[in-house]
Structure formats: structure tokens, C-alpha cells
Amino acid sequence: MNFEQMKRGIVVDGRGSQVRVRFEDNDQVVSGWLDVVQRSTAGMRVFTRPKPGSQVVCQMDANREAGVVLGAVYSEADLTPAGSEETAHFEMPDGSTVIWEGDTFTLKHASGITLSVAGGKLVVDGNLEVTGDLVVAGNTNLKDTTINGDLAVTGNTNLKNTLINGVPQVGD
User: Fold this and answer.
1) Residue (of 2, 128, 130) closest to 61 by Cα position
2) CA–CA dist 156, 137 (Å, integer)
3) What does pTM read for this prediction?
4) Which of 19, 71, 72, 156 could disulfide-link 14, Cβ–Cβ 3.0 to 4.6 Å?
């Protein structure tokens, strides 16, 4: 395949690892099925396919009959997520996000639960259910937590409304 033209277009349909693209600068012509270039297809595999409405950059042959989609590009219609060159930002269709920014890693799930790792500490904002052993050192508040396994705690602990192996814990 002799690639000669780089073109921008809008995804109109998708299947598997391919999309069809409308080229607005070419009388709204819609391409045939174009493969979408991926970061890796063997070993550690990565897959994303631009959704309909996404602006993409394609490398096409001289007749615009064959080509590949090199990737999606941000535009005025699809703004870049907040962040800097030190940010990796993944946003899922349900609104969940995974953000790595410098020394902070944050996973925000659409259900409202947030996990954050920063400064040597994991913070869970939401209900926590542990289905294995939990070892805790330091001041601990396990209010409204379910633990199905052993619990070892050193330090001050609040276990009010906590279930340990199905047994409700009573607090003041």
C-alpha cells in the first residue's frame, strides 16, 4: 500500500478494530473500513477505537481508497482533559477516570468511589469491603466497613457499624 496523503476526518461508524471516516474536505466522502493503529497487539495488548464523532488523522493512499487511522485528535468539539505533560488521563464512557500526575495516582469510579495513592498513602473515599486478611497499624476508623477475613489492629480503632466475619461490632 503506497501511502501518500494525510487526511483529517470524522468517524461515522466502527466495528472491531476498524472505523469508517467521513472526509469533509472531499465532498463528505465516507471511507471504506480503515484499520486503527494500536500501541501494541501482542504481549501487553492495548486497544482503543475512536467513537463516532471523533476527529481522526488518517494516512491514505493517493486514491483515498485504502489507509489507516493514526489516531484521534482533540478539537474545539472535543477538548483536551485538564493536565500537563506529566499527566496521563484515561476517561471511560461511564465517566470513570484514571489519572496519573507526577507522584499522585487517582482512580475515580462512576459509582462515586475514589482511590488515591500519594505520599506513601492509599486513600479510599467510599465504602470498603475486604475479603481477605486486613492488617492495620496506627489510628483506624473502619466505620461502615465489611471484613470477611482476619483483622489485626494496633493503635486506636473505631469499629462502629463494622461487620467482621458477619458479626456486627458495637461502638459508643
Assistant:
1) 2
2) 9
3) 0.64
4) 19
